[in-house]
Amino acid sequence: MIQLGGKIRLRGPWNDSAIVLKVSENSARPAPLRRREAFIVTGQDLPEGFHSYVVTKERAGALDIDRVDKLLAIIPDEMSYLADGDIIRIQPKQKNIRALYRRNSPSNSFLVTERCNHYCLMCSQPPKNIDDSWLVDEIKEAIPLIDPSTKEIGFTGGEPTLLGDDFLDVLRLAKSYLPNTSIHILSNGRRFSDQKFAKAYANIEHPDMMVGIPLYSDISNIHDYVVQSDGAFDETVRGIINLKKERQAVEVRFVIHQQTYKRLPQFAQFIARNLTFVDHVALMGLEMMGFTKANLKDLWIDPWDYQDELYRATALLAGHGIHVSIYNHQLCVLDRRVWPFAQKSISDWKNEYMEECKGCAEMERCGGFFSSAMLRYSDHITPFSHTAYPSGVDAFPEME
User: What is the pLDDT of residues 326-349, one digit of tens each?
Assistant: First the structure.
């Protein structure tokens, strides 16, 4: 697991205001750019003109700290991965640092808000009813600093669309500064049931933007129970339809657990009959974070035990020409016929492997585990002594 933040020691006359900075290793940066950058100190040199300077605790010993007359942050050694082009937030008052964006990572996402109108049984980011509008301001500061060659960034919550026009402004800014970067948004989709909002979103006209929307059953009361909100199913489905009317990309997400797995094939049939126009369906394993811990007794099922339902659902969706993927699963617990659909989907900073995985010939292809999986994971984790990846996938039988 990669440590994205931690406590810091500060030297120099910092003020109390949080600041977003681009990390630089280039001592020859143009002077106007240096004012928004933090220089990574690796030796004795502290080139002039940078807003501030960051050094790991280990390397700080080589500096004569008492002679430094610049803004200096001594960061945890665990954050020595910080490199040129990364973006950090420093909170001097709290003496905190946070990596907001890592240029060499494929897993960059921004938390837009912790507020939400769902209370999902397995929510990994439990909602908070607080004023966190500062997060949007921070994102707006960060976007112009992001490398424009970045392939994808994500926006998540909470529920980002609760911010209304403020969130749309973030997307417009992303389009302006990052026109070639794919945007992936995690949303419960309900706000898009308002046709005006769906149209306003579409009018941004970003060339590569997708909304990932969870739908947890083909039966409304099951979905509403999982998200703990009456009427959510109907609004979510209307939101998906409104987005597709506006020719916007939509991904449907289904988290598999004890409350949802039994109707997984029927859910796939519902998608194939009613929402066949969606762009992607992701069938997802459980993350052991947030409310999942409190509700584990009602949620946990060993992935080994729902392989029939997962196979049937995957076969049905693929058979109808719907792009389907399996996320957050280990290859050794999956029916080999669905291996071609399994993706390495867990963000790199929280992706790990267990002791049982040592020496496995398929580790490079395997999705691995969330770092929180130590709480509970399958009893059937077994390393492969040689590659077992199928050269092709068996023809799926016709499904009823």
Answer: 999 999 999 999 999 999 999 988
Residues of the chain with pLDDT under 50: 392-400
* Residue range(s) in the chain whose domain bears CATH number 3.20.20.70: 109-375
Neighbours of 66 (CB within 10 A): 7
Separation between Cα atoms, residue 215 and residue 41, nearest integer Å: 48
Adjacent-strand bridge partners of 22: 37, 87
**pLDDT at site 391:** 56
Pairing, β 182-186 against β 152-156: parallel
Q: How many residues are recorded in the chain? A: 400
Omega before residue 368 within 30° of 0, cis = no
Which helix (H) or strand (E) element contains residue 253? strand 249-255
Q: Which residues is 338 bridged to in the sheet?
A: none
pLDDT single digits (tens) 169-187: 999 999 999 999 999 999 9
With beta carbons less than 8 A apart as the criterion, state whether 266 and 218 touch: yes
Angle formed by the axes of helices 165-177 and 134-142, nearest 10°:
10
The answer to whether the beta carbons of residues 171 and 143 sit under 8 Å apart is no
pLDDT at 45: 80
pLDDT (0 to 100) of residue 284: 98
Classify 5-101 by CATH class.
Answer: alpha beta
Q: SS3 helix, strand, coil % of the chain, rounded to 5?
A: 35, 20, 45
Where helices occur in 104-163 by DSSP H, the ranges are 134-142
Residue 171 Cα distances to 179, 249, 251, angstroms: 11, 15, 18
Alpha carbon distance 254, 261 (integer Å)? 9
Start-end of CATH 3.50.30 domains in the chain: 5-101
Phi, psi angles (nearest 5°) of residue 254: -130, 115
In Å, how far are 63, 87, 95, 134 from 14, measured between CA atoms?
A: 19, 19, 10, 20
307-319 and 264-274 helices, crossing angle to 10° = 10
Write out the H or E segment, with its range, that includes residue 213.
strand 209-214
Chosen CATH of 109-375 out of 3.30.565.10, 3.20.20.70, 1.10.150.130, 3.30.360.10: 3.20.20.70
- Asked if 281 and 324 count as a contact pair (C-beta separation under 8 A), the reply is yes
